[in-house]
Automatic annotation (TrEMBL):
InterPro entries: DDH_dom, DHH_sf, DHHA1_dom, Oligoribo/pAp-PDE_c-di-AMP_PDE. Residues 19-171 form the DDH domain. Residues 247-330 form the DHHA1 domain. One of its GO terms (molecular function) is nucleic acid binding. This is Phosphoesterase RecJ-like protein. It comes from the Bacteria. It comes from Flavobacterium aquaticum.
Amino acid sequence: MMQIHEIEAIKSILATPKKITIVPHRNPDGDAMGSTLGLYHILKQLQHDVVVIAPNEFPDFLAWLPESEKVLIFERSFDTCKAILEKSELIFTLDFNALHRTGDQMENALKTLTVPSVMIDHHQAPDGYATYTFSDTAYGSTCEMVYDFIHQLSLENLINKTVATCLYTGIVTDSGSFRFPKTTSATHKCVADLIEKGINNSEIHNLLFDNSSYNRLLLLGKALQNLKMLPEYKTTYITLTQDELNEFGHQKGDTEGIVNYGLSIKGIDFTAIFIEHKEEGIIKISFRSQGDFDVNQFARNHFNGGGHINAAGGKSFSNLDETIQQFIAILATEKK
Ligand code: 5GP
Ligand code: MN
């Protein structure tokens, strides 16, 4: 929960109409988009002038979220977004713990601002950049935190079907459809309340998960063919080269969720997916674990990343083969 004096301070800022910008992390996922749009639809009802600015494009499988078409993209509309940021009187940063998670360009713009800011986030080791920080790794999603934050502000009457649809989306995507360990009775109570607001919960699952292109499934097939087993380390990993992505007409979001297949094998408690990004010159990596193996530390220590204990990401500046060799060498020393 946020401290009472912080809630009072935020309430007094919100007492009169303000220019407010809400920011998710770069490569925003369901929780990042759901939480920013959920809060956006609350603040709009209070007559604030609210804009969501995402650092870069969000995936198509989220493009049905209410008013997602109004989200501005910083790296596409640099001057417009910079001007809006500079006029903002309050900034919310949601679902990330350090400004560099917005990418170099947006980080530079955010760093220079001096207006009050609010961080709401559930990742480990938050930076102290925000004026008001609500950071708690016990939550499974930022959307659930926004739900509690709305209650702390006594604005729960504003949770309508639209807000509930956005928040439900982030809870579903970040909890692996209510199966990851941070799914609590509080999560289910929150979800019960959101369903009572009239959301089409089953339809939201269809929109999120049953909307693949044919190519996306073929790409998944390719990824599964590339799956490697390292039973001595209880580990699996998947690779996808840029050529393979191109072969299946890769669209943003197509690789979302593929990493989880590596954990579905009996006896495996650690998995990774390595995806080549030729243009950026990096290998983007996602890590997942079951139980005590801390992939946040693993990503931080070895692959320029971070995240949560059981789900983290990072990147490598070596080529794909070298990155895999490094990965296996690290396993040999750290995971006997
Ligand atoms: P994903 O593997 O789905 O991209 O990310 C898993 C989790 O790790 C997410 O919570 C995400 O925010 C975090 N994460 C992913 N990539 C990075 C990264 O490069 N740096 C940090 N600090 N966290 C990341
Ligand atoms: Mn999240």
